[in-house]
Write a structure and sequence with these properties.
The structure holds two protein chains of two kinds. Chain A is mainly alpha-helical. Chain A has helices at 10-46, 52-55, 58-71, 74-105, 107-122, 129-136, 140-164, 168-176, 181-192, 194-218, 224-233, 237-265. Chain A has two domains: 1-50; 59-270, MetI-like (MetI-like fold). Chain A contains twelve helices and no strands. By secondary structure, chain B is α/β, with parallel strands linked by helices. Chain B has nine helices and nine strands. Chain B has helices at residues 48-56, 87-91, 93-97, 103-115, 131-144, 161-177, 189-195, 222-227, 229-242; strands spanning 4-17, 20-33, 37-41, 63-68, 72-75, 149-153, 181-186, 198-202, 209-214. Classes of the chains: A mainly alpha, B alpha/beta. The A-B interface holds A 1-2, 167, 169-170, 172-179, 183, 187-188, 191-192, 194, 267-271 and B 53, 56, 58, 71-74, 76-78, 80, 82-85, 93-94, 96-98, 124-125, 127-128, 145, 151. Bound molecules: adenosine-5'-triphosphate and magnesium ion.
Chain lengths: 271, 244
């Protein structure tokens, strides 16, 4: 807005006040619910309503994090999982985007590829576990591969459908100006799908965590997924819960980074 | 004698789909002379937009010939400004596409925008403009590459009545002052009468020419034409021909 009025009416001032109050209230309730849940969890184990051996508790999770830190393995496990996830995420997005562009470019290729993509999308990627171990070994390579596999199809499908929905009239306009296909791509298709790009990133964040943890379930000797599996096998539920909580925090952080990117990238795409 | 910029000779166009074929135009012949403002009216769905695509060379006729001298500028019902570009970069788009973005051409496009009241909005995004201003920006974008003929596909029909009269007047003035050749598609009879030198009435699908009228107002201001006594006479005649 260019010429926003500086002097509000009283009603507007009141409206603004009410609005900020409502936002603060929502925030407070959100945090409140979390605190109440944590408190209830803690109390129920202390008062003997629930067995801390089975459900763990906030304080036990806290001390588990502490002991992992003292052992020096906390950041090692986090780092391993984070690296696998980020590399898999970046590769899935880059490769998937490139493939979607290719499929947009060539009608023939798109038609040929369509049934393959549908089948690959429906296939539970975990079924490929044994194959991946044989192809990539049991190290991080296999986990990154799994992460890419889980993410890439979603990226392709999401972006391709956005590319294909490019406004017919704008295409007509560019063609009438004598634009070639490459110009249509760079001047219209890519910039007009920025919002779809962001929403694809949000989905891909979730997918890459699924991929990396699934990968760590199948193979691996380190990482948060490994801690969960290991903790389950030796019945250390504190460890399982701790790793899960750390995962939640990391996934949330990554999601908020994407939201931040959205604020920067998508300013003037709405029409 | 003035030269023809656009000639349609017995043009036939068939659309093919899996369900069958649609003959959009058949035996369509007309010409547009240099400097002329021609309006085409016809029943809805008769093939008017198809005609413009043929004129722009985006479709090739199944039969017959379309001959055009020079380049085209296309303007559509909605402004189709790109929301992620500023008004200035929207206006420069055809130059960018045609690789003609020289400092001289850029200056000319900017001057055009300033001349027609967009000076203060060159740095704004299209969402910050009113409907009428957006349509004016779209026209200046169309003019920026200095096309030899303007193809206008119902460029005012998305605007409300008041804005529409004003924008129509602006656009008509700009086109006249810049000495452009224009082919305007419309389903609004009064718009055709208030703007054109010549009106071509099309038949229903497949479109061919039913009637051609040269309007002799001796006056190019659309609002003044609307006040002319001849206006309603033309209106009645065209109305009858369109609904025949
Ligand atoms: N791409 C296409 N494929 C198949 N048929 C088409 C296509 N485009 C248009 N048609 C058909 O051709 C006929 C003419 O369409 P056109 O858009 O040229 O009409 P119009 O006179 O511009 O219509 P309107 O008044 O609604 O703007 C219509 O019957 C339409 O269904
Ligand atoms: Mg049309």
């Amino acid at each position: 807005m260019k010429n926003r009025v500086k002097n509000f009416s009283e009603e507007h001032a009141l409206w603004l006040k009410k609005r900020s109050f409502r936002l603060a209230a929502v925030q407070a309730v959100r945090i409140g619910i979390l605190l109440v849940l944590l408190l209830f969890w803690e109390l129920s184990t202390r008062l003997g309503w629930a067995d801390p051996f089975l459900v763990s508790s906030p304080s036990r999770i806290f001390s588990t994090i502490g002991s992992l830190y003292r052992e020096g393995t906390l950041f090692y496990h986090i780092g391993v999982t984070l690296a696998e996830t980020l590399i898999g995420f970046a590769a899935a997005v880059a490769l998937g985007y490139a493939i979607a562009l290719l499929l947009w470019w060539s009608d023939l290729l798109r038609r040929v590829a369509e049934p393959y993509i549908v089948v690959l999308n429906a296939l539970p990627k975990i079924a490929l576990g044994p194959l991946i171990i044989i192809w990539c070994g049991t190290g991080s390579k296999a986990i990154v591969f799994m992460t890419i596999l889980v993410g890439i199809i979603v990226v392709i499908m999401h972006m391709l459908s956005a590319f294909m929905q490019t406004d017919e009239n704008k295409l007509l306009l560019l063609r009438s100006m004598g634009a070639n296909k490459r110009q249509i791509l760079t001047k219209l298709v890519i910039p007009s799908t920025r919002a779809a790009f962001i929403s694809m990133l949000k989905v891909a964040v979730g997918m890459s965590w699924i991929g990396s943890i699934m990968g760590e379930y199948i193979v691996s000797r380190a990482g948060l997924g490994y801690l969960i599996v290991y903790g389950g096998q030796v019945f250390k539920l504190d460890l399982v819960m701790t790793a899960t909580v750390l995962l939640c925090l990391l996934a949330a952080a990554m999601y908020f980074l994407v939201v931040l990117l959205e604020k920067i990238l998508v300013k003037n795409t709405k029409n | 004698m003035k030269e023809n910029i656009l000639t349609f000779e017995n043009v036939k166009l068939i659309y093919h789909t899996v369900r069958g074929e649609t003959v959009a135009t058949e035996g369509l012949s007309f010409t547009v002379e240099e400097g002329e403002f021609v309006a085409i009216i016809g029943p809805s769905g008769c093939g008017k937009s198809t005609l413009l695509s043929l004129a722009a060379g985006l479709l090739s006729p199944s039969e017959g010939k379309v001959v055009r001298r020079g380049s085209v500028g296309y303007m559509l019902q909605r402004d189709e400004l790109f929301a992620w570009r500023t008004v200035e970069r929207n206006i420069l788009l055809p130059l960018e596409i045609g690789k003609k973005l020289t400092p001289a051409m850029r200056e000319e496009a900017r001057a055009l925008a300033e001349k027609y009241g967009l000076k203060d909005f060159l740095g704004s995004y299209p969402t910050e403009l009113s409907g009428g201003m957006r349509q004016r920006a779209a026209l200046i974008r169309t003019l920026a590459a200095a096309p030899d003929i303007l193809l206008l596909d119902e460029p005012f029909s998305a605007l409300d009545y008041q804005t529409r009269l004003n924008v129509t007047k602006d656009v008509a003035n700009i086109i006249r002052r810049e000495n452009k050749t224009a082919l305007l598609i419309t389903h609004d009879i009064s718009e055709a009468i208030s703007l054109a030198d010549r009106v071509i009435v099309l038949t229903g699908r497949p479109a061919r020419v039913a009637h051609v009228h040269t309007l002799d107002f001796g006056e190019n201001d659309p609002l003044k034409r609307r006040e002319n006594k001849q206006f309603s006479v033309w209106f009645e005649l065209l109305w009858k021909e369109l609904n025949a």
